[in-house]
Amino acid sequence: MSDKEFAAEPNVWDRLGTVQKHLRVARAGVVVAAAALRHQNADRDEDIACVLEQCIGARLEEQIEHIAQLIAPGPRPAETDSGDLPAPVR
Fold it and tell me: Which of 22, 26, 55, 66 is 20 to 30 A away from residue 32, measured at CA?
């Protein structure tokens, strides 16, 4: 999806769903790359695979889960006039 198409989506919740889909694709790429590195079994490939999984894949998964919670069915926080998400409550 291009930036133009993304910007044309009607609301922030639809945009979050699109971001989530793209993060899932990126996460799948990390899984495939890590598996390929392990299969090669070269000297440093295991280390690189671990970095991919722990530093990139895990962060992607966290963001996917955060977005899933935001866009889950049910009551949603009110959108602001600008269409942005309200500030998180801490």
Answer: 66
Structure-derived torsion over alpha carbons of residues 51, 62, 15, 24, reported in degrees to the nearest 10: 50
Percent helix, percent strand, percent coil in the chain, to nearest 5: 70, 0, 30
Contacts 24+ apart (CB under 8 A), 70-74: 70/13, 70/16, 71/13, 71/16, 71/17, 71/20
pTM more than 0.85: no
Instruction: Tell me the CA end-to-end span of the chain in Å, nearest whole number.
Output: 33
Instruction: In whole angstroms, give the CA distance from residue 26 to residue 6.
Output: 17
